[in-house]
Amino acid sequence: MKIRIPFKKERLWIVRDPGQGNALFQSRLFTKHFRNGELIEERDLGTGVITNAGVALWAADWNNATATIKLATWHDSGTGITAPTISDTVMQTPTGNARITGSQSNLTNVYKTIATLSYGSSFAITEWGLFTAITSGTMFDHRTFSAINCVAGDTVQFTFACTIVSGG
């Protein structure tokens, strides 16, 4: 990015360098909250925090004999409220429920993994993570958000979508 500062005015100009590419990917998280099998709320939780460990995993896959990025399909949820950072490697406060592996798809340059998590008691779900294993593993993405108030028997469907952009 080139920065030009004019001499006569007190303005800062930021100009996109023609040789500089666009963002290469963007992730989004969507939720659907069900009670007694009935949809009670849908949310688009926007973009999130793909972690340092997730980016390293992705970059290493180019020369890895066995692809590992495809393992990032294990969804977990919790009640942590601190904003996620790129250095996160674990959930803040997991619910203690088992992680659920999501179904995967790749259509029109959008990778998706979708999992439905069930709750046996009441939780204010405010945190979500995507991992490469049912226990431990690499945390690929981490989010916090305003509470999804669940009672026993509720389910929340989490859809993680990562769009890969050409021309970058």
3D structure, described in words:
This protein has one helix at 52-60; strands at residues 2-4, 13-15, 25-35, 38-44, 49-50, 74-78, 100-101, 103-107, 110-118, 123-131, 139-150, 155-164. It is mainly beta and 168 residues long. The protein has one domain. A 5-stranded antiparallel β-sheet has the order 4-3-12-9-8, with no helix packed on it. Strands 5-11-10-6-7 form a 5-stranded antiparallel β-sheet. The chain has a two-stranded antiparallel sheet with strand order 1-2. A hairpin with a 7-residue loop joins strand 10 (123-131) and strand 11 (139-150). The protein is globular, with a radius of gyration of 19 Å. Mean pLDDT is 86; it is low at 1-19.
Q: Detail the poorly predicted runs.
A: 1-19
The number of domains: 1
Described by strand count, sense and barrel closure, the largest sheet is:
5 strands, antiparallel
User: What structural class do helix, strand and pairing data support?
Assistant: mainly beta
Q: In what range is the share of β-strand residues?
A: over 45%
- Give me the Rg, rounded: 19 Å
**End-to-end separation:** 14 Å
Question: What's the helical proportion of residues?
Answer: under 10%
Shape: globular
Mean pLDDT: 86
What is the quaternary state of this protein?
single chain
SSE string: EEEEEHEEEEEEE
Number of helices: 1
Care to count the β-strands?
12
Strand order of the largest sheet: 4-3-12-9-8
